[in-house]
Design a protein that fits this description.
The chain has 440 residues and is of the alpha/beta class. 35% of the residues lie in helices and 20% in strands. It is globular, with a radius of gyration of 23 Å. The structure holds iron/sulfur cluster.
């Protein structure tokens, strides 16, 4: 039987889909690239924004046609969205064409539930938060090209006031270092040169293990060191990191690891202390600046990128200006910028003083203008330098060119043949744009 997976959401969800594909293949099912050809349709959902959720409801509704055309098809809905009790109930009530609804703790049970559904069990809903038998090792079918994504932890303990993740992914659970390393070795043996370590907050890796009595449990620095030591792994990246757990001492340790030290992504979210407190981020701008200064002192050529939310509830014009000033001080290589949108079920959605959309849009524009100037200047400084690029594949905009990334994670558009894909090549940078470099 063949399965088709539709994935919504972030990189973690994409990797979850790789694991779902691995679990299904291990159970004897075959992947297929077309929904119409599938006997099993899996929808891996995301609930980070309400707009995403609405899109997914539309997609799930349309699957009625698939069931109509092929009544025997099994439809399974998984992922963050289903873990919300209200959604699980709604899917049960309105989704008679859906055979299986599984929460984030139970995804590994999919083959077992497919067998039951095929035997005519009727609709199965399992959004239980019992993860006592969640396996530490799950197979993954990697689709990420030159980069292998490897989970080091699941869930999050931070409860940022705008974020739904801790409610749908549960408390933080670190995987064992042995299981992580086994996966990295397997990826290296398959030819992957770059590893992306995944977790909602990778920097707090191991805290839960130590709390549970494993006093010698490794910390995040130990995971990085061990990953870098795997033969064949040339680059190690990680996401997401959290300034609350990112100490200047961790910067010192990273600065000794050539596979990691050239790139930091450190989500700031706001450069205003009042807003950071309201977001429950657990650090202030002084602490953040201390980390940035340490990075620049230890590895001056490192690139630093960030995430910023504008228009958080209560953010005044003065607060926003303070944020802009701090962003100008940090001089990020790039910033992923977002307009705050209320997510029901989170404390921030209930906060008074929601900022009008027009104000949020105007602030985003001002932030983008500032950041684009900084990003362009930073990229222009690369012109004339020779950099080592890990080539990922053909450029999306011009398939006659290639795209790859520098050690500092800058996108480079370059010339070359397909034999360069998944290889590291040295090129001279000849041009710079806001979001990429050119070696043409
Ligand atoms: S660290 Fe904050 S933003 Fe990130 S997943 Fe946890 S609660 Fe959400």
């Amino acid at each position: 039987m063949k399965f088709y997976i539709k994935t919504f959401g972030c990189q973690m969800n994409e990797h979850d889909s790789e694991i779902i594909a691995g679990v299904l293949q291990q159970a004897g099912y075959q992947p297929c690239g077309e929904l119409d050809a599938a006997d099993i349709i899996v929808v891996n959902t995301c609930c980070i924004r309400e707009s995403a959720e609405n899109k997914i409801w539309g997609y799930i509704g349309n699957l009625k046609n698939a069931k109509y055309k092929k009544p025997g098809v099994i439809i399974a809905v998984l992922g963050c969205m289903t873990q919300q009790t209200t959604i699980g109930d709604a899917l049960k009530r309105y989704g008679s064409h859906i055979d299986i609804v599984l929460g984030t703790y139970q995804q590994h049970r999919l083959p077992e539930y497919i067998t039951r559904a095929l035997a005519g069990s009727g609709q199965i809903v399992d959004i239980s938060e019992d993860n006592r038998d969640f396996p530490d090792e799950l197979p993954a079918v990697r689709v990420g090209g030159v980069t292998a994504q490897v989970n080091i932890s699941y869930g999050c303990n931070n409860f940022c006031s705008y974020c739904i993740v801790p409610y749908v992914r549960g408390r933080e659970r670190s995987r064992s270092l042995n299981a992580i390393l086994a996966e990295i070795r397997e990826a290296a043996a398959a030819g992957c040169k770059e590893i992306m370590l995944l977790g909602q907050n990778v920097n707090s890796y191991g805290k839960d293990l130590r709390k549970a009595g494993q006093t010698d449990a490794p910390d995040f620095a130990a995971v990085l060191k061990a990953a870098c030591a795997v033969p064949g792994i040339e680059r190690v990246r990680y996401m997401s990191s959290h300034p609350r757990d990112f100490s200047p001492e961790l910067v010192d340790e990273i600065s000794l690891l050539p596979q990691v030290r050239a790139y930091y992504h450190l989500p700031l979210q706001s450069g205003c202390n009042k807003t950071l407190r309201a977001m429950n981020r657990g650090y202030d701008t002084a602490r953040y600046a201390e980390i940035i200064d340490r990075i620049r002192a230890k590895t001056p050529a490192a690139a630093v990128t960030t995430d910023i939310i504008v228009g958080f509830p209560g953010e005044t014009e003065e607060d926003f200006r303070a944020s802009l000033d701090f962003i100008a001080r940090c001089r990020f290589d790039a910033a992923y910028t977002f307009i705050y949108s209320p997510r029901s079920g989170t404390p921030a959605a209930k906060m008074a003083e929601q900022v009008p959309l027009a104000v949020k849009k105007a602030r985003l524009q001002r932030l983008t203008t500032l950041q684009n100037q900084i990003s362009l200047a930073k990229n222009q400084a690369y012109i004339g330098q020779t950099v080592r690029v890990l080539v990922e594949g053909p450029s999306k905009n011009n398939p006659e060119l290639l795209t790859g990334r520098t050690e500092s994670n800058k996108i480079v558009i370059l010339r070359g043949g397909a034999e360069l894909i998944n290889q590291i090549t040295a090129v001279e940078i000849t041009g710079a744009k806001t979001w990429h470099l050119e070696a043409l």
